[in-house]
Every structure is written in structure tokens, then in C-alpha cells.
UniProtKB/TrEMBL annotation, chains A, B, C, D:
<dbReference type="InterPro" id="IPR023418">
    <property type="entry name" value="Thyroxine_BS"/>
</dbReference>
<keyword id="KW-0378">Hydrolase</keyword>
<dbReference type="InterPro" id="IPR000895">
    <property type="entry name" value="Transthyretin/HIU_hydrolase"/>
</dbReference>
<protein>
    <submittedName>
        <fullName>OHCU decarboxylase</fullName>
    </submittedName>
</protein>
<keyword id="KW-0210">Decarboxylase</keyword>
<dbReference type="InterPro" id="IPR036778">
    <property type="entry name" value="OHCU_decarboxylase_sf"/>
</dbReference>
<keyword id="KW-0659">Purine metabolism</keyword>
<dbReference type="InterPro" id="IPR017580">
    <property type="entry name" value="OHCU_decarboxylase-1"/>
</dbReference>
<dbReference type="InterPro" id="IPR023416">
    <property type="entry name" value="Transthyretin/HIU_hydrolase_d"/>
</dbReference>
<dbReference type="InterPro" id="IPR036817">
    <property type="entry name" value="Transthyretin/HIU_hydrolase_sf"/>
</dbReference>
<dbReference type="GO" id="GO:0006144">
    <property type="term" value="P:purine nucleobase metabolic process"/>
</dbReference>
<dbReference type="GO" id="GO:0000255">
    <property type="term" value="P:allantoin metabolic process"/>
</dbReference>
<feature type="domain" description="Oxo-4-hydroxy-4-carboxy-5-ureidoimidazoline decarboxylase">
    <location>
        <begin position="12"/>
        <end position="168"/>
    </location>
</feature>
<dbReference type="GO" id="GO:0019628">
    <property type="term" value="P:urate catabolic process"/>
</dbReference>
<feature type="binding site">
    <location>
        <position position="186"/>
    </location>
    <ligand>
        <name>substrate</name>
    </ligand>
</feature>
<dbReference type="GO" id="GO:0051997">
    <property type="term" value="F:2-oxo-4-hydroxy-4-carboxy-5-ureidoimidazoline decarboxylase activity"/>
</dbReference>
<feature type="domain" description="Transthyretin/hydroxyisourate hydrolase">
    <location>
        <begin position="183"/>
        <end position="296"/>
    </location>
</feature>
Length: 297, 297, 297, 297
């Protein structure tokens, strides 16, 4: 799935078997979705293609739809550990850190998976790209308490989210990325009244009081921004984050006379993300003796 | 040394042996300082008493002054571990965490102590109440590179600092605490335009990337302040600190509709203290979507 | 009324005629209130005295109470201009600028006074110390639309406000001023992380787009505050205000290299006061390129 | 000069008389500049054309260059009032308000013009598009004190500035406007954590304590910005400005319960512009009880 992205023109023109080969894995173990969508070609936009694939599932008989849910791999489950799932699933679970759990964590997932399957008859399905590890566990526990009918709909909605992101990754399009979601920043030096260039920035996910994971690292450019968003063009996993700015190093380089240790050295800005498709612009407005942030735009 | 504080009136009136018993430990293993100061009574203020004791040392013969330096206990050294030092020293070293070091850290101190003694002929003396653990080690290393003459003066200055703080702890006085140094805070809710009451605040010392120590904990009152400073009436150890405010809990209690997780939940404000006798007022001005701080007054 | 303030002890002890002479003007043209209160002596506090005088009025027959309302002078009315009102009223009206109106404004007041008297049978009574000129006119117009019963109660409440302030001005007491109300400020220099001393501050009332009145002028001290509040110990008239800070001059004096004109020179902070008895702390946190304010505490 | 802009292609192709007709007024009363530049065609860019015209002047004999300076109209002078100057000059002087002076101001300009001409033998030349009225007078007075040699160079530099702006107005080009200079804003609502839409914004020039001139008026869009900069694509006259935001109306429309008058209603942000070609981004970050600004980017 990491080869050169397909174009819509090519997809509209190719024989059905090629179309199914190209898009069969968008829905896990369900190439029949691509096959049925193939007959509805041509598509004017990637959105129209995504809508068509979703309609195929919504119009399918109950049993077939249930089979699609049942065919999904468990999170951090045995199939995943044994490699018996779609490569896309492997990558998604790895990005969420589910391939690097401790034995205790695996045990916890196994217990949750078993309880869920016992209650609902299907594996727990969640678009893991939209959740940090703590959020993922919270959702898992919350959904165990749902009514079965509600839960079936929730699971299907998650399947559609997974499919939409996979499709967007496979098919090239014009315009801005169709999968939104962004963390960006901007540093202003209000001693000199201009953007702060050359500031090292790190983005960490705060998994727990003990564990943080470095997500991205960058340096601000002449406009005080990073050349690319720290997270962009993909959902921002629901989680607590911390931006850390090397403000003291910047001020020293700018020739300010700082105390030892300086009042402000590495400045952490901690914030939570609850809307994976949202834009979180978290600027830093600072002097050697003050700083602030807000959710910007 | 923890009994009811002495008054200056009582000190001015008591027989010399009692005076020496009362103040003999202000300078480590050097009751002769108190004895000589006794003859200079009466004193109008505690400052005058402190000045007199310092003058006794400055006017003493070189050899006696050197003996005073040589008599000081090493930091985290064998004497401290074996209990052969003044109770005041025990308490001071414990407050700096020097009684709870790992074996590796003890080894590091032993090596530094040995190197220092070899180079300067006296133990390393530092007013540990003015330093967090990281600062203490940095100072130790820096002073190993000093010229012997400079270092002798530095050691004496530290002895005077230790003595002044001990004396202030022993003798009651009127007016504001004579040992300054303060960390305070203040929380303002700019959605409602008033102080934020009932916010949980913690002050942590950031010893290293892995280790933080809880220093104080409080809840803001109706004026958005803590009833007492988080650190006050004593030197603030040179270190990196983090104030942590339970802002999300406050906003939830105030009835604001927050996302899950909220954009701002626990808000850390990280800052460095370089002047132990300074006043560090670090306010938080916040809404559910913004916050700021500055060194206030 | 500007002689040395009376003490409660003296008031409790003096013969009734003296007591009435001292406090007879607290209620306009109604020395009978002081006379009746005299019989209820002694008073433990000024509040108790104020309560007693108020009770005398509340317990008086309707006709006497109505006469008290009817005896009040009109605002900016003929009696005021001709000097036939209590000296306290003269001072109060002058402080509100009602002795310096243009002919058009006098005409407007006369028309309002006539309409009010025609509708309610009493003069319009308002505690003018609690209102700027624009607020005063707005209240006048709003009250013209009240129901007569409501308006009678409102007028009496205003009479009590006037009496309480007059009494507080006449009788000395311990503790903080009993008439609250305050505008204060505080300037922080976040380039240097300390209070900004020596900044010229002016407080203006913004009467209209064309007219502003200078209310107070001060210079910040070493703590970045003015030695006294800009308004304090009296009600803050309901109005729009502007604090103006000579920030550019401060930065130039501090040796910063400013552009010509500087980005920030005289910084106005405009704010409204709606609670005359409230405390409006309006700080300025600034650098040469940024500033902010908030309602502080 | 307000007809459809010329293209570089057309200018490169047209007969010399047409070229001179088109660009003859770029330098006041000096069509010979365009004529000489015509021979240097073709030009790859507008900048190259501008450079060529400037080179013509720099390479001209001293006498001709002096004649060009001498041919410039005085500011607010008799020629301007009598209509005997280039239409471009008329428009430029009008934009600076020089056609609407009081008699006293005209008199002041006449005196300055006379003094300048007496001292330097040429009229005072200034690119008025880069100066507010107060700045223009300050520059006039300052330059009266220059050395003649320096002043001649300064006048020529101003002529080039005037020519460059005129040329940019005449000739269409691709890319961003070649004449930079911008005042823009951005309003953030930190109660709700999003851009503040629908806020009325006015930009005023503060000419003096008594006189302000409305420069632009706009309403913020969904992104909290104005659709176009308040000033853009032209130099920002050196002056003091005030942005005024109808914040109270916004908060009322958003359903916040405000006092009467609100703490913040119309919020003025006053700032100075010293670099006409600079970008002045002056945002407002606000709640009903706080606001701030800084020079952004």
C-alpha cells in the first residue's frame, strides 16, 4: 500500500479485477465492497468513490455486513501478533504503539477483547488512528457498557472511518489533504516584536504520568513557524500532548543576559486533543519573563 | 534546635555560658564564635547580633578561621551518614535530599568530596538550603576549578550564609521574616473576570528528566491565592520548578462545557529560580482555551 | 462639613442639639431624622448609627417620608444654580460636573426635571456620586418610565445611599474606608521581569466621543503601582474610563531602542465601570511590542 | 491614470510616443525619463523597467536632474491649489489630506515651503503616501536643518519612491503587490477557543489629541480576520493609528451576560507605524474581561 498513489482517472479506466486488487483492502477482508463499487464507475471525485463504497456496505444484507464486522482483527490481538491481518491494519496498530505493549498491557487487551466478543459477538473495532493509547483504552471500556444495537452502529461508523482514511491514502487527488487534522505552532518574540526563528520544538504525547512519547521535532523558520505542521494530513490521535520549546537557548543565542538557570528555559505547553479532525494551532508568545498560549486559528 | 525561639531580650540578659549554649551551633563546631560575640552584648537587633558573630570570625587569626572551615562536615559524606555532625547540618542535608541518595549518587559525592579536599585542604562547604540537588552538583563541579584563594573566600561566604539562616531560625524577631525567598501564585479566571477559587496547585522540583519531587500543595482561596506562599520565609533552592494547576477540574466545577479531554486540564508552568532570596510570583491567567504567566510582583 | 471628622465617642456624648447640628444635613432638609436618632444613642459603630437614621425614616409616617423626598433639590436645577441647597448637595453636584453644563445641557435637565416632577410629584433623586454624566442621564431617562410605586422606592433607596456616603464623610472610624469603590493599576515590564517604575498614568472619564475629563494622574512607584488608588474610598461613578500609560517614555528611559514613532507610546486601556462599590484593578503587562490587561484583584 | 493597467508585454511592443504617453508622468514634468527608458526595451520585469527609469535619471547631467527636482510641486502649495500639477500629485496630496487644510495650516506650509526653497533652491519633495500629516510636518522641519548636499540626495531618493509607486500603479504584474505595506488584524475569542466572527473594526489615524481620521472599516469573517487588510498593497503612512473593535456588541450577540456598561465595549488598540513598507499585524485576543495585542506576523 505504499507504492505511488493511484489517480482517479486510472481507477475509472481499469478492468474490474485491477480495481478490486487496488481497493479490495480498503475494507478489511471484504473485497466484495470494491467489486460492487466497481460497477458504479466512473467517479468524479474521491469523495464520490468513498460514498459509493460506503453505500455498498449500507445496502448489503444484514448478514454480510455482520460478517464484515466479524472479520475485523482484534486490537493487539493474537491475529495481529501472528501477522494474520491486512498490512494496513498492521501499520495502523503499530502507529498506535499496539505492537510494543508490555505483557501486562497485552493481557489487559486480551481480557477486554474477550469480554467485548462475549457481549457483542464481534471484535472491538476502533479507528486507532484517531486515538492515543489512553483514549483507546477509555473508549474500549466505555463501549463495553453500550447497548448491543448502539454498539453495532458505532462499530460500523468506525469501519467507515478506517475505510475513508485508507482510501485517502491510496488515491491521489488535488487540493488540500482530504483527511484533516493538524497540530501547528507559531512562536512570537515580543521583546523584539517579531517571529522567533530557530527555536527547537518537540511534540510529545503524554501517555501517563510515567510515559511520554516523542511524536515530532522541528525548528521554527524565519516566520516563527515550523515548515510543516507537527501533525498534519491525518487525524490527530485523541490524547494529551505537550509542546516543548527551547526558549532559553533561543534567548541566549539572541544575546539576552539570562540568569542561571533562566526563569524560562524549556517551556512546556500541555493541551488535550478531543477532535481528531480539528486544527489545533497552539502558539507561544514569549519574553524571557513571560509566556502565553491559546487555541489559535 | 526546634524548641521555642529565643528572644533578643533574653539573649542580651543571659549568663555567657547560656548564651554560648544557645548560639554555639550557629557556626559548626565553633562555639568560640558565640563566646566572643557574648562580650559584645547588648544587641539592638538580630542583624546586629549576626554582624557581630560574623565580625568575630573575620577578625580571628587565619588559623582559627581555617579550622572553622576544616571542621565543616562534607556533603553526603561519611560523617553525615554516621551522624557525627551538628543536628542543624543533619536537617539541612536531609531537606536537600542528601540523606536519600542512591549508592551511585553517594559514590559521586564521595569522589567529588575527595577531589575537593585534595585540591583545597578543606571540605566542600555550601549553604545547601539555597540549592536544589542539580544546582548543588553543578556548583560543586564549578568550584573544583576555582583558584584556591578565591575558593577560600567562597567557602567563608557560604559559612556566613549558613550561620545567618541558623541564627534567624533560633531567634524570634518582629516584622517580616528576615530570611526572604518566596514562591507564590495567583489564579485569575478571565471568562468571569475574577479570581479563581478552589484550584488545586502543586509545586514540584524538576530534578531531572526522570525525577520530580513534590514540594508543596495548596488550594486557591477566594482571592485566587494560596493562604501561604508555596515556599516562604526561607531561601528558595536554586532549581527548576513546575507549578501544576488543576484548571480543568475548576472549569468543570464552574459548569463550563468541556471537551473530553479538555483543551486545558492540568496546566504546568515551568520556571527556574536563580536567586534564592528573591520573590518569584508566578500567576496563572486563564480561560478554558488560553493561559499565560509572567514573573509578577 | 469639611472640618475635622467627628468621632463616634463624641457623638455619643454630646447634647442633642449639638448632635442634630452635627448630623442634621445627612438627610437633605430633614434634621428631624438626626433628632429622632439622637434618642437611640449610644451607637457601637458607625454602621449602627447609619442603620438607626435609616430606620427613623422607614418608620416615619408616609407623609413625612414623602416630604423628605419632595424636599430634595433637583439635579442641575434652579435651586442648585441659585445656591438654595445643602452645601453637601452643592459639592456632590459639582463633582459630577453639573455646575458646568452648557446652556443646552441645562435645558435638557430642566425638561427632564419637569417631566419627572409632572409624572411622580417629587424631584428626581439620584446619588450622583455613583454616576458619570452619561450614566446619570441614562438613569434619568430610564426612571421616567418606571411605575410610580417602584419609582418612590427607588428614590428612597437613593436617599439612603446619599445619606450613607455623607455620614461616612462626617464620622471618623477605624479600619478600611466604609465607602468602598476603587480603580487601581499595576504595570509589569516583561522584558525585564519586574514592575515598571516611573510610568506616568492618567485616568480619564470618557463622557462622549468628543469629551473626556481627566480624573487622576500619578506615577508608578518601585512596585509598579501608584502610591494610592486612582479612585479610592468613594464610589466609582458609573462611566467609561480610559487609563493612559506613558509606556514609550518609560522604554526610552530604560534605554530600549525604539522606532519613531514607537509601536507603543501612550497606551490607552478603555473599560467600563458598572459597580460603583466594586474594585477595578486594571493592570498593564507590557513590552515595547505587546500589552495586555484584565480585570485583576 | 486610473484606466485599465498596462501590461509589460504591451509596453515592450508599443511605439515610443505611446510609451512616453503612458509613462511620461511617472516622473513629474519629466517625460524625457520615459523617452530615454524606451530605448532600453524590452524589460523582463516591472522592476527592470523601474530600474531603467531610475538609471536614466542617475546618469543624466546634474543640471537636468536638478531641473527635475525643481519642477516638483510644493506640498499644499499654490500650484496644487490652482490645479497646475500632475493628476498623480493631486491624488497623492489629497490622500494625505493636504487639500483640506485649515487656513492656519496652509499658512504654516507656505512658511515652511518658503524657508525650504530659500535654503535649498528646490521645492520640498516627500513621498506623501508614506507619511501621515503629523509625520509629514515633522519630516519637513527636520529636513530644513540638513546640509544642502545631503538634502539633495534625500530629495532624489524621495523622487524615486514617488516614481516607483506611480509605476506600480500603472503597470500590471503577476505575484504579490510590488508595493508592500500592510495593517491587518485578527480577533480570537478565548472564552470559546475560536476566531471571533462578525466583529466591527475601524482603523483611525490619530492626527492629534483633537483630530482623528477614519481610515478603514470592516467586519471580521469566520476566520476572525477581515477579508482584506485594512491597509494593503500601498505604503502605510507613518503615523499613530488606533484599531477600534466592537467587542461588547460581539459578546452580547454571543449571549454573554454583560454588565451595563460592560467592562469591555469598544476596545481601542493604539500603535505607531514607523516603517511604511512593513507589515503591521495587530491581533486582538479577548474575553469579556481581558484583552491583549502584540505585533504579530
Amino acid at each position: 500500500m505504499a507504492s505511488a498513489p493511484l489517480t482517479l482517472t486510472a481507477l475509472n479506466a481499469m478492468p474490474e479485477p485491477d480495481f478490486v486488487a487496488a481497493l479490495g483492502a480498503v475494507y478489511e477482508h471484504a473485497p466484495w465492497v470494491a467489486a460492487a463499487a466497481s460497477a458504479r464507475r466512473p467517479f468524479a471525485t474521491v469523495e464520490a468513490l468513498a460514498d459509493a463504497m460506503r453505500a455498498v456496505i449500507e445496502e448489503a444484507p444484514d448478514g454480510q455486513r455482520l460478517a464484515l464486522l466479524a472479520g475485523h482483527p482484534e486490537l493487539a490481538g493474537r491475529a495481529a501478533r501472528a501477522g494474520r491481518i491486512e498490512p494496513a491494519s498492521v501499520a495502523e496498530q503499530a502507529a498506535a504503539g499496539l505492537d510494543r505493549l508490555s505483557e501486562a498491557e497485552y493481557a489487559r487487551f486480551e481480557a477486554l477483547n474477550a469480554a467485548y466478543r462475549a457481549r457483542f459477538g464481534i471484535p472491538f473495532i476502533l479507528c486507532v488512528k484517531r486515538h492515543g493509547r489512553a483514549s483507546l483504552l477509555r473508549r474500549f471500556e466505555a463501549r463495553l457498557a453500550s447497548a448491543p444495537e448502539t454498539e453495532r452502529r458505532t462499530a460500523l461508523a468506525e469501519v467507515f472511518r478506517i475505510g475513508a482514511i485508507r482510501l485517502n491514502g491510496l488515491v491521489a487527488g488535488e487540493g488540500p489533504p482530504r483527511t484533516t487534522g493538524r497540530i501547528s505552532t507559531h512562536v512570537l518574540d515580543t521583546v523584539r516584536g517579531r517571529p522567533a526563528a530557530g527555536i527547537g520544538v518537540e511534540l510529545h504525547e503524554i501517555v501517563s504520568a510515567e510515559e511520554t512519547v516523542l511524536v515530532a521535532r522541528a525548528v521554527t523558520n524565519a516566520d516563527g513557524r515550523t515548515d510543516a505542521p507537527l501533525i498534519g494530513g491525518r487525524p490527530v490521535p485523541i490524547a494529551i500532548y505537550e509542546l516543548r520549546f527551547a526558549l532559553g537557548a533561543y534567548h541566549r543565542a539572541a544575546g539576552y543576559d539570562l540568569a542561571d538557570p533562566p526563569f524560562l528555559d524549556v517551556v512546556p505547553l500541555r493541551f488535550g486533543v478531543s477532535e481528531p479532525e480539528g486544527h489545533y494551532h497552539v502558539p507561544l508568545v514569549a519574553t524571557p519573563w513571560s509566556f502565553q498560549t491559546y487555541r489559535g486559528s
